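A reminder from the course coordinator: this example appears on the midterm review sheet, so study it carefully.

Given structure:
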C-alpha cells in the first residue's frame, strides 16, 4: 500500500511540476529577501524581517515591542534606507530613538491621534513607495478598537506591499492581520537585570542589602514565532513555527 501511495504522489507531483510547488507540503514558504531586525537573537529566530510582506509584532505593555521597533529602524536607517513611522497615538520618543542609533534625518514621523488617521496614513505611504520600512504603531490603541479594523484593510496593505522592497511592520497588543501577515512575532517580558552602584565584585551583595541603591540595566524578553510563511532567499534555516528564543534590550527603549 505504501508503495502505491508513493508512486501516486510522484505521479501527481510530476504532473503539476512547474505549476504548483510541492503540492503535498503545506509548510512551503514563499522565498523573500530578509533583512536584519537589528537584534541578532531575533534574526536567528526569524531569519530577519521580510521585504514585500507584513510583519506583526504583538505583546502586552512593557513587553519590548518598542525596543524591537527602534532596533529595526536603527538597522534600516544605518543602511541609508528611508523609513516611515505611523505613530497611532503620538507616543514615539525621537530623542530616545536617536540615542539608540536611529538616524532621524531618514525617518518620516507621522503623528496620529486615532486609528482612522493611522490607517489612512499607511495607505498613502504604501501607495507613494520608496520606503525601506513602514512601521505602524497601534500598540497604544485599545485592542478592542484595533480588533474592529475590517479584514479587507489588512488585505489591502498586504497587496500594496507585495513585490516591493518595503517592510511593513505592525505593532499591536494582539495579532489582527490573520493570514495577511508573513511573519507574526509575539514578545513578552521575562525579567529584569540589575546592577549595583558599589564596586563590581560586590554589586550582587550590595543589591541584596540595599535594593533601593541598585540600577535597572535592562530586561529579558521572550520572543515566539507565532506564524511564518516566508523563507529567506539565501536558504538559511530559520526556526519553525512556535519556536522561542531569548534576547535582552536596554531600558532606554523599554515599552
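Designed residues:
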Amino acid at each position: 500500500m505504501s508503495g502505491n501511495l508513493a508512486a501516486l504522489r510522484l505521479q501527481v507531483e510530476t504532473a503539476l511540476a512547474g505549476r504548483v510547488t510541492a503540492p503535498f507540503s503545506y509548510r512551503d514558504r514563499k522565498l523573500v529577501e530578509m533583512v536584519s531586525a537589528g537584534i541578532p537573537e531575533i534574526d536567528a529566530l526569524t531569519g530577519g524581517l521580510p521585504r514585500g510582506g507584513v510583519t506583526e509584532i504583538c505583546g502586552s505593555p512593557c513587553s519590548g515591542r518598542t525596543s524591537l521597533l527602534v532596533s529595526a529602524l536603527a538597522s534600516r536607517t544605518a543602511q541609508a534606507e528611508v523609513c516611515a513611522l505611523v505613530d497611532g497615538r503620538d507616543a514615539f520618543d525621537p530623542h530616545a530613538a536617536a540615542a539608540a542609533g536611529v538616524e532621524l534625518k531618514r525617518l518620516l514621523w507621522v503623528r496620529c491621534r486615532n486609528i482612522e488617521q493611522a490607517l489612512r496614513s499607511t495607505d498613502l505611504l504604501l501607495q507613494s513607495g520608496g520606503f525601506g520600512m513602514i512601521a505602524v504603531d497601534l500598540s497604544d490603541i485599545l485592542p478592542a478598537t484595533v480588533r474592529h479594523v475590517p479584514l479587507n484593510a489588512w488585505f489591502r496593505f498586504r497587496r500594496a506591499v507585495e513585490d516591493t522592497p518595503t517592510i511593513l511592520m505592525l505593532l499591536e497588543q494582539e495579532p489582527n492581520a490573520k493570514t495577511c501577515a508573513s511573519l507574526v512575532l509575539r514578545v513578552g517580558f521575562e525579567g529584569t537585570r540589575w546592577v549595583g552602584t558599589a564596586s563590581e565584585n560586590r554589586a550582587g551583595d550590595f543589591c541584596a542589602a540595599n535594593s533601593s541603591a541598585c540600577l535597572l540595566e535592562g530586561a529579558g524578553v521572550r520572543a515566539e514565532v507565532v506564524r511564518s510563511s516566508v523563507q529567506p532567499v539565501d536558504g538559511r534555516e530559520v526556526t519553525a513555527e512556535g519556536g522561542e528564543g531569548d534576547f535582552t534590550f536596554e531600558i532606554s527603549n523599554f515599552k
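Residues 20-28, 198-203, 237-244, 248-255 have pLDDT under 50 and may be disordered. The longest helix spans residues 2-15.
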